[in-house]
# Entry
Amino acid sequence: MSDKPSEAAPVDKEDNWGYDLYPERRGEAARAKWWQIALFGAGQTNVEKTTCERNVYNCFENSPLVKLMYSALKASGCEIDLRRHIACEVCDVSVSGGYDPKLNQIVVCQNVVRNKGIIQGILTHEMIHMFDACRHQLDFKNIHHLACTEIRAANLTHCSFMSAMFQGDASPIRIRKQHAECVKMKALGSVMAVRPDVTKEEALAAIDKVFTKCYNDLEPIGRRIRRNSADMIRAYEEKGNYGYE
Amino acid sequence: MSETKETPAKQYVDEKDIPNVWLVRPCESYKDEYSECKSIRGRFHQYFIHGENLDCAQWQTDFDNCMKFRLQKDIPALEQVIKSESKRRYERLAPHYYNDVWKHRDKPPEDWNKPLPPKMQEEYKNTYLDHKAREYKASQT
# Structure
């Protein structure tokens, strides 16, 4: 993904990798259509941006999970600079956030997420990718590496029973060990969003190959958080025991 | 002098000298984890993930030993807690270090902080996060 105008640079196959979902990153400022402004109050991008940035900052100040991830990254030698590593932008409505490995930046979609809780989830999810990129030789072009980091992010930040039910991976009579199914499906969705050139079968095969190892690697959070419990705080409080002070 | 069931293997002048004593958390944490483990919602969560109930007894044991040390300065009890925490630490970190899908790095990526394209840097000047980032940097010096 380059910052040259798209007519001049040859279209690299990588440019088709889901980054069309982030139009502002290819050098085009987002512009709302007239009817969007009139009917939906769109186009207030500056206000929206500042609101998004305030929410992001709020997470870094108050969310135990985000603070834990920040400490873990700092302890690993990859401190996050709020301005350098995070961007609030207008994106395609199908995504809520992402991680840009080329610029090493988390993108938060200001036009899609306005809720602090959801932003907390996005930040934690993407910071897990950063954690993996910081500590390991993570090659995002390697489908197994991508599968592994998506499995870990889904494992640690998503897939409560309720969200698994909504996704169709669990039901009141299908509960036992369904967490793993939910993680698998969520990771599949993420892998396919980033790599539209990969088929569902190829993605599933890659996920299955690395699943056991990556599903059980819980660093740096250390547990699968139970929603609406104090698990986030417990994970934060014990970070000193695992080297993330 | 403490009333211990057995004499400690080594006499410690100051409990801070015991190896790995920093692993021990406030006793209340162990009680809290035990309650979570035994709770209905906690059990559901365990069933959803592992397909079975986990053994919660260790948390209670750790709490009891922790309190024994707090109230009676029982060093062997403290050592038991340290042993339990070390085991927990190993069990949690082992899958991380044995995850060989990728190679470990010796040091962080060199381009972690590489400068953003000038157009982006220009856009970010005077934004809310720009101010907050600079405020933080200033507070660190």
